[in-house]
Amino acid sequence: MNPMYNSSGRWRRVLVPEALFTAGVYVLLLALFAVLRLLLLWRNASMAQQIPAELLTKSFWVGLRFDLAVSSYLLIPFFLLLLVLRGRKRVWLLAGLAAVVGGVIFSSLAEIEFYRDLEFRFNTVVFEYLNHPRIVAGMAWEGYPVLRYLLVWSALLSLFAGACSWLYRRILLPAPPAKGASAILARTMGVTLMLTMMVFASRGGFTHEPLRWGDAFFSEEPFANDLALNGVFTMGRSVLEKASGRDKVWTGTLAADEARRLTRQMLLLPHETDLSSADHPILRRESRPADAAPLLRRDPTRPMNVVVILMESFAGRHTGALGAPGGITPDFDALSCQGILFERAFSNGTHTHQGVFASLASFPNLPGFEYLMKTMEAKQEFSGLPSLLNRQGYQTIFLYNGLFSWDNKEGFFRQHGMDRFIGRESYVNPTFVDPVWGVSDYDVLMRANEEFKAMAAKGPFFGAILTLSNHSPFNLPDPLPFARITAGDDLEPRLNSMRYADWALGEFFRQAQREEWFQNTLFVLTGDHGFGSPPALTEMRLDRQHVPLLFYSPALDPAAIGHRRTVASQVDIGASVLGLLGLEVPHQAWGRNLFDPGLADEGFAVVKPSGGDDLVALIEGDYVLIREPKGNTLLYRCDFGFPPRVDLLPKEREAERREAMLKRMQAYVETGLLSLRDRKLGVPEEMKKIGRITPKAFRPYNPPETTL
């Protein structure tokens, strides 16, 4: 008998043999994944030449979480079966484990060449290749060292199987069965402890959210981040997302070519050059006519800074500049008198993450992808402002009250042009800290002023600010810097928080206008979404998505200042900023330049709430078409003024408009889903230098002073 199992049985009462054996297999799998990651690094060494060794070393450390998770996915069912099987059945179970691990090794070795060619880890593109097995097999045989990889596969699998066999003989084979009440109790406790540890390992450790691919993005080096990922993990996520069939309700409704054609009609403006193709369905470039007067008095030698401020729950229903009573937003209202305010603007979703990617990545909130930043499809190029302006030589920064790990913000935007992140742990001696969400809006905005001042000395910058104080549980400083609002209802905490966010915004502009960078900056302010207030505007609760959208700059042409009734949404921000800056760069933004001189219609917005993937609305002027589950449609005539008014139109009325709007909605959503799935959202490499700014020496530029 193995001396580990002596007659006293003390070792067996402490450790369950099956748990000890499984722990040994864990070690083997972690070592195997480390070797496979090392092979990926070796084969793609040219991508790592300029990366410090300590960063590459950290890739292995960060990757350990993904390796542990994948190992847990494999070993949890194995461990449970091991507990109930005996004798020869255990041998067959070990053979099955070896076969599964053999498949893991094979796919990981194949991924090495996949990454070498495409520069991203396994995802849904693999399934497109598998649709053509003969072609792929021929390509692999002719283009890659298949025999050498097969030898490596055989060696690694043999080592793993041999080590497992040794562990089996050493631990499981001589283990006596547990007898007696105390032994069974100890065994039960050991099994429970092991399973608990395995479950936590499967979700990435003792964290508030399960592991996701964005957790691998710890640096500014894409290859180091990709190296930390585990291909089995990324492939598994892709399989689950593909198997869910979440886009089937919308894709296939129209022929793909027809859907693309209609979507181009919706987005392409008279003064844009159509560069689209099957691989780049909405690619275009602004070509502003020479006689068109710019709305911004730009200095051609001094690129303008851009700041996008997303205000948490900044509802249009309570914004004074849009007509709301109560004096909730006096500072925003004063600022809007000096800018261009869109009265009929909408958030593309009803949660912060949807407003963030719609505003900054210029991509809509689509059915099945309302958590886009967490999905594998998000790991591709988007025509968002951080990416496009970073390509123009802009510095980029994202400031936020809370944790950037929430909703995978940092993981997403670090690969989409955002250089720096200032989050909850980055503030020193803040004036107020909400124990739930982080520092106050005032602290975020004061820090933004400091950062922008330092960045402006080096060149043009793009700054994104996301506020959070206007969020439940509505913790605010005491005393408040203004007279508390006494509404006498459930909205009182919300309204005071919104007033506080507005006050902090005003303080930011009062301080920033004293700085030189302020005079040469374009600001875009909007809500990430609104919040519900009676009356409910349709079953979509469009009151939750009606937000103000303000474009402001001290350099704005006074003749352009005022309110506009063009329907807009957050995806219009990117194209509009490019137009105002005069950047004629190719892009695939899913919105339009709201300031294009050829824009003649009333505008449109495609929006959806969180949850209910079949519920989508198209807003065109005063008309709102809602597509309900099972394809039922409702057409409304809406007035978003004070008080708001909604009229449901009978089906026999506006039949032609209803049919045309439904077709446009289906085309837009279908083209978006197919482009996302097929990874057709980027810009061709040969076009990325078109329109690029050549930064020149900066000189003072002082338009008339603006005060709040």
Q: Could you characterize the architecture of this molecule?
A:
With 708 residues, the protein is an alpha/beta fold. The chain has two domains: 3-243, no CATH class; 257-586 and 678-687, Alkaline Phosphatase, subunit A (3-Layer(aba) Sandwich), CATH 3.40.720. Helix content is 41%, strand content 12%. The chain has 19 helices and 18 strands. The protein has helices spanning 10-14, 17-43, 53-84, 88-118, 125-130, 133-143, 146-172, 181-202, 222-228, 231-243, 256-267, 330-336, 352-361, 385-391, 409-414, 441-456, 492-512, 572-581, 655-677, and strands spanning 272-274, 284-286, 305-311, 340-346, 395-400, 420-422, 433-434, 438-439, 461-466, 521-527, 546-552, 562-564, 568-569, 604-607, 616-620, 623-627, 633-639, 645-649. The strands form four sheets. Strands 3, 4, 5, 6, 9, 10, 11, 12 and 13 form a nine-stranded mixed β-sheet that branches. The protein has a five-stranded antiparallel β-sheet with strand order 14-15-16-17-18, covered by helices on one side. Strands 1-2 form a two-stranded antiparallel ribbon. A hairpin with a 2-residue loop joins β15 and β16. It is globular. The model is unreliable at 1-14 and 694-707 (pLDDT under 50).
